[in-house]
């Protein structure tokens, strides 16, 4: 079979506000297994950036090691990219972000890359509230090494080889909330109507935004008994809400009755519309979100949607008061203010 993507596209493809078509946001042809949920997530990222009219060259996509970490090759081919060492994507993203705050940072990771070897890195990028979108393509297994259970595999879940997982899983959404994440969402690779608005909201959020996406592995973890299989996930999904992302630059129209929707306004003026919120759950309250996750897990359900958002979030640059310009644009006068400035600093410590 051919792995060369055809260059022809319909001449009347719709364009976004910048005049780009979706072709400008594509990557090379995917070599993942046919039907892999990761490809659906890649498509959702592509669609989100296209609809938000983000210039491709102003996006940096960073990944680690694993099936999920291969996916940046398959979207945003005109963007900056870096495929890092296993579990070390957060460090590379932190360094790049501190050097150039003007880019939009999208980190792509997997359940092994994040919940096992990269757990320490994940914890610290959360607590620093780095301004990035951190997407975990969570399939509960190690697809590159033939399907062993990962740290997110549910207890009692059966692998393709027939072994039953005896260990408690790591819930990345709950962990992120406990670590202080300012935006936490969860979705399913087969539900783009929910995933795309979540990605767009995460990109607009000023701080760290985690989206844990359940993405069944069609080759090694889509069997009867697996809690990450397509059939199981579809039967146990429990959405917090129907999510719609509406940029403030467009007119907001709603026909819902009072009390049936909730508007969450972000710093940049964009709005998330949450419809039919579950009773007793508040996406602006961290404890409420944790309780909702625990309740769903006790019922054997997978809670999806926007779980929590801190509307007053400040990203790392604001927290440590860095300069507004990218470091590579600073001139010698700004980097070396002179001897008197040094003397003043020294004097302040005496």
Give a nutshell description of this structure.
The protein has one domain (22-320): Thiamin diphosphate (ThDP)-binding fold, Pyr/PP domains (Rossmann fold), CATH 3.40.50.
Overview of the structural elements:
The protein is α/β, with parallel strands linked by helices. It is built from twelve helices and 13 strands. The protein has helices at 37-51, 67-70, 89-99, 111-115, 119-127, 172-179, 192-204, 230-236, 286-298, 316-320, 332-335, 339-348; strands at residues 59-63, 80-83, 104-110, 132-138, 141-142, 148-149, 183-188, 208-214, 237-239, 242-246, 261-265, 271-275, 302-309. The strands form three sheets. Strands 2-1-3-4-8-7-13-9 form an eight-stranded mixed β-sheet, with helices on both faces. It has a three-stranded antiparallel β-sheet with strand order 10-12-11. The longest helix is centred in the N-terminal third of the chain and has 15 residues, at 37-51.
């Amino acid at each position: 079979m051919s792995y060369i993507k055809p260059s022809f596209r319909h001449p009347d493809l719709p364009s976004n506000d910048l005049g780009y078509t979706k072709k400008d946001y594509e990557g090379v042809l995917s070599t993942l297994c046919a039907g892999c949920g990761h490809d659906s997530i890649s498509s959702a990222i592509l669609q989100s950036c296209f609809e938000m009219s983000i210039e491709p060259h102003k996006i940096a996509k960073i990944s680690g090691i694993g099936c999920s970490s291969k996916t940046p090759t398959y979207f945003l081919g005109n963007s900056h990219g870096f495929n890092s060492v296993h579990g070390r994507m957060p460090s590379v993203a932190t360094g790049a972000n501190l050097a150039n705050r003007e880019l939009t940072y999208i980190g792509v990771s997997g359940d092994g890359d994040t919940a096992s070897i990269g757990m320490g890195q994940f914890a610290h990028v959360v607590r620093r509230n780095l301004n990035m979108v951190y997407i975990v393509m969570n399939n509960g297994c190690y697809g590159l090494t033939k399907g062993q259970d990962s740290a997110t595999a549910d207890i009692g879940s059966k692998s393709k080889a027939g072994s039953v997982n005896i260990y408690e899983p790591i819930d990345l959404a709950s962990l992120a909330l406990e670590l202080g994440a300012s935006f936490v969402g969860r979705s399913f690779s087969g539900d783009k109507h929910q995933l795309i608005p979540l990605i767009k909201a995460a990109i607009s959020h000023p701080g760290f935004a985690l989206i844990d996406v359940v993405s069944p592995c069609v080759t090694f973890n889509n069997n009867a008994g697996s809690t990450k299989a397509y059939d199981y996930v579809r039967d146990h999904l429990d959405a917090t809400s129907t999510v719609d992302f509406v940029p403030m630059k467009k007119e907001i129209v709603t026909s819902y009755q009072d009390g049936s929707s909730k508007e969450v306004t972000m710093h940049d003026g964009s709005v998330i519309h949450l419809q039919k919120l579950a009773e007793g759950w508040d996406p602006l309250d961290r404890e409420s979100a944790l309780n909702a996750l625990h309740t769903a897990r006790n019922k054997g359900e997978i809670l999806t949607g926007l779980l929590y958002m801190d509307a007053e979030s400040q990203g790392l640059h604001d927290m440590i008061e860095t300069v507004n310009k990218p470091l590579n644009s600073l001139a010698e006068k700004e980097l070396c203010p002179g001897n008197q400035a040094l003397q003043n600093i020294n004097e302040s410590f005496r």
